[in-house]
């Protein structure tokens, strides 16, 4: 799920997901894809003694301790999940969705200086849908939809770049590094990812990433790791 008031959620116990109806079809599709990626990612349950109750143990990259007191890799898991959902969204063979994406790109290109009330840019690389909610003599009032978990995915992008900068002799490109993350999420095998991170940086780094349960903490940790900064989005439409 995405916290209180979330528009989508996934329940690993019941292998079910719920998505709230939204007025914008593209937003609904994006949320649906995110929850579908949770559903399709690796999952495991555990039996707690002595009452033999069944509780979640693994979900994608996330790991819950046997006593249920700690949850690991939450930020990284959401980053990889939304990155995979974003790729499917941008490359979906669905004419109506591709039309929305194309119209949005054209609108952004025609309004490059659109800004929020505080002066910050209205559009960014994650904007996939724009709606004109009001026209007046003062201009247009717009609402936008963007891919979620921006801080977490920014940290993931930067982590992938740093791993690649240290291992360019092993990986043909940065996409091959991201594949290690995606494969860990989909298969549940964390060992190759853990070995890569520990070998590249230092012993204990994987554990530190595991303990990051919010985007800001995850980003600060990745910032502290040696290597080049993130230079480009991971996702690109075909």
Secondary structure blueprint with pairings:
Blueprint: E1 8-11, E2 16-19, H1 25-40, E3 43-48, E4 53-59, E5 62-64, E6 71-72, H2 74-91, H3 95-110, E7 127-136, E8 139-146, H4 150-166, H5 174-187, H6 191-200, H7 205-210, H8 215-224
Antiparallel strand pairs: 1-2, 3-4, 4-5, 5-6, 7-8
Helix pairs in contact: 1-2, 2-4, 4-5, 4-8
Using only C-alpha atoms, the radius of gyration works out to: 19 Å
What's the total helix number?
8
From the spread of the alpha carbons, the general shape counts as globular
Mean pLDDT reading? 90
Strand content: 15-25%
Query: Total number of β-strand segments?
Result: 8
**Which class of secondary structure composition applies to the elements?**
alpha+beta
What is the terminal separation in angstroms? 29 Å
| Poorly predicted runs of 5 or more residues | 1-5
Strand order of the largest sheet: 3-4-5-6
In which range does the helix fraction lie? 40-55%
Order of helices and strands: EEHEEEEHHEEHHHHH
